[in-house]
Design a protein that fits this description.
By secondary structure, the chain is an alpha/beta fold. The chain has 18 helices and 25 strands. A hairpin with a 2-residue loop joins strand 21 and strand 22.
Length: about 550
């Protein structure tokens, strides 16, 4: 079916009667009209209504255009979950720009690469993270003064200075097609340099609605921002909460005690986070003190949650929605959809059912597949492994400026996740392994190859292998097995410190073991031998 854009149709064409571009910008426009005086954002003692949010976003958009932004230009932001971060998800596309939300946990080198590769023309940076940037990297820099204990960059405007210079009037519609890029999200660089994943307006619109259906979000929703907004645009909840007319409660940095306090104070109904967030909250003393005044739904992804933590959350009266996806699928793509028959199961068996990755979102392709190397579906026997492949409305439009990687990812007409899973007889998928040795620590992807490349830069190291090992808080963390050069000396602490000086801290190995490496007769390192030893006595390693 050919879709006619409005420019081609003309202002009085009948095509405009039955077609409108799907864009998240419509969500803010509607909620500002329907709920003008309702809090859109709560942050500390501040409350910003939908009418105020709309005006502020219009001003930012106007100021961007006045300062030279052209349609399709990239606008980067380095910020935790504070007010400007929420607003920029509307202001940038409102100006016809493309939002590039950057992970605040990356190193200066990684951020420099992203700014250069994306060609960002503007950079909005929270002053806490000024040390990760330097003047001259981009044409325009704007200071976000959330925590005034951090000095701002001299010679550049503050966020308030910037938006007050803009017009509060409705902005022109710069959208040519609903497939125009709305954001670029960079992967964690699991195979070398990170790739820029392009989302379009249509996909962001539909996935936002998919989140609302999956997480039971309606107009009375109060959403606590424990999930970073830089991560897949907050799994599109940056757009889904305004779509429902709900309230976003910003949290600069996750802390389980503060999260429990805000859940109680703001009457929170929804939040998201990796299983590490659930573990931290379930094991905090406040978990037994807080009396929920309304049902609380937590949507979890980033790593498969254990049946144990799911059982703990259920005992606290919290509903957990388990979803699965990748940066390339706007965040979640599948959900472990609840079945009424599970109510009759024992708590342990019910938790095991809910630990699976499930079935496609209602807005995605009807079926997520598990296939063999020839793209044939594996038997639905819960045992035969294959690769998870997806397609549909919440699959990226491609990698920015990387057609080769895009073609590889889309081979055979499906997006290849690189994740290995089984298909159960009921049609639910369950992850079993990663195809590329990726470590998932606290919801963040870590490439073993990237870590190994840093480790071997140490002057005393001859060879190393990195795997993920169990960690009660993060799920798993990197461990390096190191062979030293003959006559060289270095301690495990020396190597850990070296890595932390040369890469993002969360990627650096937490443990180092010095010795020999198991190898095949041809000299290939047998990582499975290392894994079997480290995971002995544990539940099956899934990721």
């Amino acid at each position: 079916m050919q879709v006619m854009d409005k420019a081609a149709a003309g202002p009085h064409s009948t095509a405009n009667v039955y077609y409108a571009h799907l864009t998240p910008l419509a969500f803010l426009e509607r909620s500002a009209y329907v709920y003008p005086d309702k809090p859109a954002i709560v942050y500390g003692d501040r409350k910003i209504t939908y009418a105020q949010m709309q005006e502020r976003c219009r001003r930012v958009a106007s100021a961007l255009r006045a300062n030279g932004l052209q349609t399709g230009d990239r606008v980067a932001i380095i910020s935790p979950n504070v007010v400007p971060m929420a607003e920029m998800h509307f202001a940038v596309p409102m100006a016809g720009g493309v939002l590039v939300a950057i992970n605040i946990r990356l190193s200066a080198d990684e951020i420099a690469y992203i700014l250069e590769h994306s060609g960002a023309k503007f950079l909005f940076v929270d002053t806490e993270f000024n040390h990760l940037t330097k003047p001259g990297q981009v044409e325009h820099i704007v200071n976000l003064l959330d925590d005034r204990s951090f000095p701002k960059l001299d010679g550049y405007p503050t966020y308030k200075d910037f938006y007050t210079s803009g017009s509060p009037e409705e902005q022109p519609d710069w959208l040519e097609s609903e497939y125009d890029t709305i954001s670029i999200n960079y992967t964690s660089g699991t195979t070398g340099r990170p790739k820029g994943v392009m989302y379009h307006h249509r996909g962001a619109y539909l996935n936002a609605l998919g989140e609302n259906i999956t997480s039971h979000i309606e107009s009375d929703a109060v959403y606590l921002w424990t999930l970073p907004m830089f991560h897949c645009n907050g799994w599109c909840y940056t757009w889904s909460i305004p779509a429902a007319g709900g309230t976003s409660v910003c949290l600069r940095k996750f802390d389980p005690e503060q999260a429990w306090n805000l859940i109680e104070k703001e009457n929170v109904s929804n939040m998201c986070g990796a299983p590490t967030v659930l573990i931290a909250m379930a094991n905090h003393p406040r978990a037994k003190e807080v009396k929920l005044k309304r049902p609380l739904t937590i949507t979890t992804a980033g790593a498969p949650p254990s049946p144990t933590i799911l059982g703990q959350m259920e005992a606290l009266g919290i509903r957990v929605e388990h979803v699965y996806g990748l940066t390339e699928t706007y965040g979640p793509h599948t959900v472990c959809q609840w079945q009424d028959a599970w109510s009759d199961l024992s708590p342990d068996e019910r938790a095991r059912q809910r630990a699976r990755q499930g079935v496609s979102y209602v807005i995605a392709n009807a079926r997520t597949r598990v296939v063999d190397e020839d793209m044939n579906d594996v038997p639905a026997d819960g045992e035969t492994m294959g690769e998870v492949v997806m397609r549909g409305n919440n699959v990226m439009k491609g990698y920015y400026d990387n057609p080769e990687a895009t073609a590889t990812a889309f081979r055979g007409g499906w997006f290849h996740s690189g994740d290995l899973a089984v298909m159960h007889p009921d049609g639910y998928i369950e992850l079993r392994d990663r195809a590329k040795d990726i470590i998932i620590s606290g919801g963040e992807n870590i490439s073993t190859i990237e870590v190994e490349q840093v480790v071997v830069k140490h002057p005393a190291v001859m060879e190393c292998a990195v795997i993920g090992v169990p960690d009660d808080y993060w799920g798993e963390v990197p461990k390096a097995f190191v062979v030293l050069k003959p006559g060289a000396a270095a301690t495990a602490d020396d190597i850990v410190a070296f890595c932390r000086d040369n890469m993002a801290h969360f990627k650096a190995p937490k443990y180092v073991e010095i010795g020999e490496l198991p190898k095949t007769s041809t000299g290939k390192i047998q990582k499975f031998v290392l894994r079997d030893k480290e995971w002995a006595g544990r539940e099956k390693r899934i990721n």
